[in-house]
Amino acid sequence: MDTGILWKFGIDEKPVSILVSCKANMRKSQNLSPRIWSGKHPSRSFYKIAQDLYISTPEATFLQLGKELSLIQLITVGYELCGSYGLSVQSSSGFLRREPRSNPQFIERYLEKCEGIHGVKAAKRASSYLIKGSASPMESLLSMLLCLPPSLGGFGLPRPELNYPIETNEGSVAIRRCDLCWPDQQFALEYDSDTFHSDASKLHLDSSRRSALEKAGVHVVSVTKNQVFDRGQLFNLATITSKRLGRRLSPAPFDFAQKQDEIYQAVFE
Fold first, then answer.
1. Are 175 and 168 in contact (CB under 8 A)?
2. d(Cα 232, Cα 192) in Å, to the nearest integer?
3. Could you tell me the pLDDT band of residue 6, with boundaries at 50, 70 and 90?
4. CA 166 to chain CA mean position, Å
5. CB neighbours (10 Å) of residue 42?
6. Contact between residue 88 and residue 142 where contact means Cβ atoms under 8 Å apart
7. Structure confidence by residue, pLDDT tens digits, 38-73
């Protein structure tokens, strides 16, 4: 395989996972890690990128990972596929901005064509928890911690719109986006940038954005990294959010802390 072609399309990690139809075709090497996928291939499973070279579509990749990852890990991958960021070891922040690769509806429609394929049940379950539009791992983490059901380590709150556009009359910017927004309640959570937003100028922009949103009638609560990673502060944030949304928090199961840890680990492993 010409790895130069893969590099051209941004596939630069090794080994590269490849699909083969049977064990006889498995030839493991330093550059390649084969996986078996026998049986039918639903439409929209592959893109052709060169002569005799195809790559899995985001939806097919999600399905394939359904037989390899835990439920929480798969949800985390889904947030990334449906978000405007991609993890990258080459970036100091750990991720790069890019266009979304898919959305929950595309994934769900694809999985409907995959009955009987190994991994589809896990993939379907994970897809039911996906929210499109996350712009960073921290936004994905906060959304999962607040909105996944308590049985999975979340607080079971209603799903927000991620990076929801709000019209404002603030300066030259007509549209401001809320990190996590519940439009009907005119309520938003804005993550205070540090690790994932790189410099002081970005901090100033975040402050300006919050001010503009407040003037547009949206009640904004700032969220710090400490609040996200401290269980007590996170519970207080969930309580404030639930009251604003007119909801009560569901009772936490006995293994709630363990399930929360699985979310943290899945996002930052």
1. yes
2. 18
3. low
4. 22
5. 17
6. no
7. 667 888 899 888 777 788 999 999 999 999 999 999
Q: Locate 137 and state its tokens.
A: 């791992």
**Is 158 a member of any domain?**
yes
Domain count, the chain: 1
- Residue bearing the bigger pLDDT, 89 or 172: 89
Alpha carbon of 23 to those of 1, 57, 61, 74: distances in Å? 19, 23, 20, 26
DSSP string covering 89-152, please?
Answer: TTSTTSEEE---S--HHHHHHHHHT-TTSTTHHHHHHHHTT--S---SHHHHHHHHHHHS-GGG
Q: Kindly give, in sequence order, each residue whose CB lies less than 8 Å from that of residue 203, ignoring residues fewer than 6 positions away.
A: 192, 193, 197
94/241: higher pLDDT: 241
pLDDT at 35 over 90: no
In a domain? residue 254: yes
Supply 136's token pair.
């960073």
For 175, the domain range is: 145-269
Token pair in block for residue 221: 């609560």
